[in-house]
User: Fold this.
Amino acid sequence: MDWKIRELIEADLTKGFIETLESLTDVGLTPQEAIPIFRQRKASGVLTLVAVNSQDQIIGTASLIIEQKFIHRGGRIGHIEDVAVHPQAQGKGIGAALIQTLINAARTMKCYKVILGCNDKNIPFYEKQGFHKHENGMRLDLPLLVEGGGEGESSQEMGALAVTI
Ligand SMILES: CC(C)(COP(=O)(O)OP(=O)(O)OC[C@H]1O[C@@H](n2cnc3c(N)ncnc32)[C@H](O)[C@@H]1OP(=O)(O)O)[C@@H](O)C(=O)NCCC(=O)NCCS
Assistant:
């Protein structure tokens, strides 16, 4: 095995991390633009794992977000997000290792369940990791209207999220 799994560090942003995420969707960020996002995510407690090859290039990634509920007496659940393996590295067990490492992290964090959303094509992959289909996913697209910025630009610090109801 010529790869290993560890936590994402800032230096990885120039080492194939964005290219790896592109196997999931269009990312449209330079490494420089990704730095403040990396810092905000880390400060808000998102765990982002990467798979790195022997040249320290990023070839896979997956993230875990822990949510504490009121229900289940304050029980925690883990959300797995943004699972991507570089096209040239797929089929080597990297996706499975990323998911199993996140499941272990969720277990350590005392989560009572782990959930994720995926398309039909990837259901067999997640079933092999122990997941089963449960209920349905729903989605509402919200066009962002940000002053002085284009669609999708984030001017709001996560920590300063303030909503007027
Ligand atoms: C889906 C993805 C993460 C899988 O990662 P991977 O490293 O290629 O998968 P692995 O090599 O770890 O596969 C683990 C097992 O799942 C199987 N598997 C992987 N993808 C599969 C698929 N789409 N359908 C059926 N089985 C699949 C493998 O054959 C392997 O089976 P085995 O344990 O019997 O040998 C990867 O293909 C990917 O990044 N795809 C593009 C982005 C994407 O769709 N991400 C998921 C978003 S929800």
User: Anything to note?
Assistant: The chain has one domain: 3-134+144-160.
